Amino acid sequence: MTDLGQILAASAARLRDAGVEGARRDARLLIGHVLGIGQAEMVARPERVLQAGEIAAVEAAIARRAAREPVSRILGSREFYGLAFGLGTETLDPRPDSETLVEAALAAIAGRDSPRVLDLGTGTGCLLLAVLAERSDASGVGVDAAEGAVRVAAANAEALGMTSRATFLRRDWTSPGWRDDLGRFDLILANPPYIPDADIAGLEPEVREFEPLRALAGGSDGLDPYRVLVPQLPAMLVPGGVAGFEFGIGQEAAVTALFAVAGLEVTAMPRDLGGVIRCVIGVASIP
Known about the structure:
There is one protein chain. By secondary structure, the chain is an alpha/beta fold. The chain has two domains: 4-67, Helicase, Ruva Protein, domain 3; 78-283, 3-Layer(aba) Sandwich (Rossmann fold). Helix content is 38%, strand content 17%. It has twelve helices and nine strands. It has helices at 4-17, 23-35, 39-44, 52-66, 71-75, 99-108, 126-134, 147-159, 205-208, 224-229, 233-236, 252-261, and strands spanning 77-80, 83-86, 116-120, 139-144, 166-170, 185-190, 237-246, 265-268, 279-283. It has a seven-stranded mixed sheet, with helices on both faces. Strand 1 (77-80) and strand 2 (83-86) form a beta hairpin. Helix 1 packs across helix 2 (23-35), helix 1 (4-17) packs parallel to helix 4 and helix 6 (99-108) packs across helix 7. It is elongated and about 75 Å long.
């Protein structure tokens, strides 16, 4: 017989041997998910005997994590800004760092009525939907070049009850005419690919093997998407509109320079919880 305490210990040991940080935490999360029990029950009833089918299901989930598949991918969802977002093979796994951009964007549009929001490279739709969740008078559009991402974002909007305010479209911002029918926006958000191509091979397996490459690689210096998008911002923003872009460590000078060349006044450069400058907020000029 195998009980809950035994399988937790064995699972944590297997994950530690595979080099997984927070092995016991991840084992608890996966076992709780597979068995449909909360963390309190796991602590209170370590003597609970597991059935053969339960053991097999737990071992399958632990094997996936030992292969360095992220917990969120195994669970199929990630919490972001207090909301649950389903994931797909063509979407990034939302990171807590990106909540910095949401906070800054909400502050920047605090005085605007019924703001219209554009999310560039929307992925799961987390940036747009997090803003709409906080602003019931807001509406917006999310665009992504990956059809799978558009489907996932639309499904997340439906699950969160926001289909009447959020539209998701397949658009490739490297293609001519991609924005012709979108109109102008009070707020434009983006978390573009920003990792230099040569750095991809050195990323953690959870990122390198399980995140979509097109959502990671930003060219030789990681800034190719910014060079494409930032010059187009003035044509997509209303006068005095706000743009908020996330970027990687050490890229703030280059990105803010692109904002300045495009005629956007940089008004904030917020730091994430780790103290890293994570994003830039810029405002379009008013004629």
